[in-house]
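[Solved] Which block belongs to which protein?

Original post:
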Amino acid sequence: MSRPGEGEILLLTASRLLDGRIVWLGEGGHWHEAIAEATRFTYEDAGPALERALAEAEQKEVVAIYEVVAKDTQPPEPVTTREAIRAHGPSVHPDFSYDYAPVREKESAL
C-alpha cells in the first residue's frame, strides 16, 4: 500500500461493473462517481477499509479496487497523472469531460 506524504490522504477507487465508470468509496460503503464524495483515509485506516471493500465487491458490483494517494484538498486531487485523468474524465476538450456539478449549480451559473 502506498504511504501518503505530508498533506496527502488515501482514497479507494474501483470500476463499476455495470458500465465501467470510475467510482470512489464514500461514506457508508457507497460508491460514487464524484471524487469529492470519496472518504479520506489515513495510511492506518486504508488497509482495513480496502479489505472490507474487497470482501463486498461482488455485492456492490465493483471490480479492481485499490488505493490512490491524493492531496488533502476539496475536492481531493490525485497526485499521479493517471489517477487525475481517471478522477476528472478523459484528457480531451472540456466539452467532452465528465461534469459532476449539481443541476442547481449549473442553472445558477447561467
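(Second protein starts here: sequence line, then its C-alpha cells.)
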Amino acid sequence: MKFLSLIPLCFLLCLCVHRNLKGDSNSRGTDNIDEWGRLHPDPERWPSSKGWKGFKNVADKVHDMDLKFGIHLMAGISTQAYDSNTPILDTKTGKAYEESGKVWHAKDIGVPGRACKWMSNGFMALNVTSGAGKAFLRSLYELYISWGLDFVKLDCVFGEDIDFEEITYVSQILKELKPSIVFSLSPGVSATPNMAKVVNGLVNMYRVTGDDWDQWSQVVTHFDVARDYAAAKLIGAQGLNGNSWPDLDMLPFGWLTDPGQDIYIAFFNLNDKATTISWKFDDLVKALPGKKLVKGLDGREVWSLNRVVLNDVLSAEVAAHGCALFVFDY
C-alpha cells in the first residue's frame, strides 16, 4: 500500500493482480483474469476477492475509515489476456462483442509491438480506435467503478508510453460513470510541458519525473522539472471535472524488491552527507551475530535477529555515522 499526503487515500499497486510467484514481477502469464480478460485481484493474496468480488469488500472497509480508495492500473491489455485470446465483453448486451458478423477477441485488439516500456512482458497497448477496443475499456472501467473506486492511476500511458487515444477515451468513460473520481497518469519519463498541455484537461494528475531511488542526481532534477511546469502555468490548471496538477510522485525510499521476495535494508543519513545506500537483507544479516533461519507462520524462511544485538548495531551506526536503519518487508 502507498499513502499519499494531503489526500486521505488508500492506494493499491498494480501488482496486486500478480500471483505471488518466485521471480521477476515483469513475468509473463502470472495475472489473474476473468473470462473477458479483465484483471482481478489474486484471491490468495486478497481472500475477500474470491468469487470475482474484486476489491469491493476492501473499498467498503476503506470507506468505513473515511479514506478514499484507489488502484494503480496498467494501460492497454494484459499479455495474459492476449495469449489466452479471451473474448471482449459488450456490456450493452452482456455477451461477447460482435461487429460485422465477427466475435472479437483479445488478439484482435492487442498491439504486441507497443509493449509497456517498463513491464514489457505483462502489458501491451490496444487499438482504441476499434469498436472492440472501446468495448474492452468500457467493460473494464464499469467493473472497477462498481468496486467503489475514488482514484485511478493509469500507467504505461503517458511520458515515454504516451497514448492520447486511450487517455481520451478512459477520461470520457470516467466522467460518465463517476464524475468525482480522480484520474492520474504515469509514467513521467520523457514527459514534457507541451505533452502535459494536451492531456491536462482530461485528467487530474500526471507524472512528470522518473522514479527516485538511491541517486541524489535523480532528486535534484525534480527541482528543474517543477520550475518548468510552474512556468508553463500547469499547476492547478483545468482538469477533469476540476483541476489538474503535475505529479512529482514518489519519495526516495531506496530500492525495494519484487513483492514478497526479499527484504531490503536501507541506511538513510541524518547528517549533511549526501549519500544513501541499500542492499539485500541477506547480505547484512549474514554479517551480524545472533542470526538464525526460522520458518514464518506462512511457511516462508525468514531471518531472526537477536533484538539486543540489532539495537547495539543501530546505536553504534547512529553514533558513528548519523544513520538510521529502516527495514522494508515489501
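Accepted answer:
You had them paired correctly. Confirming on the second one: The radius of gyration is 22 Å.
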